[in-house]
Amino acid sequence: MRGEKLRAAGLSANKLLAIRDLAEKALSGxxxxxxxxxxxxxxxxIERLTEVRGVGKWTVQxxxxxxxxxxxxxxxxxxxxxxAFGLAYRKPPSVLEKHxxxxxxxxxxxxxxxxxxxxxxxxxxxxxxxxIPELS
Length: 136
What we know:
CATH topology of the largest domain: Endonuclease III, domain 1
Oligomer: single chain
CATH superfamily of the largest domain: Hypothetical protein, domain 2
Largest sheet: none
Helix content: 40-55%
């Protein structure tokens, strides 16, 4: 499909360049097929995929977690993770990576819990921390 048709379908010029770069990197082997990527370490995958225009570390970390099912990923630059960590631990985001080492090798699970903690209603003192009213 020509660039004009893709642009007419709603792709921005930058997205079109990113798609072309991804295709070129896939053809050249920089972006390997999934079955080959699965054999690489997280850091090797991050190094390869961030060579693609428009793909940053956060994007690759989401791919590692949600598509490859990697168990030990902590996306320290994710806004939600940083916010939840600060609320839960009362520490600045600058110590998140260091603190997160205690969660290894299950940092993906810790990330899920941090994200989900943002979905909870704040504790207002009238309920137990679990949200279940205390029985008198």
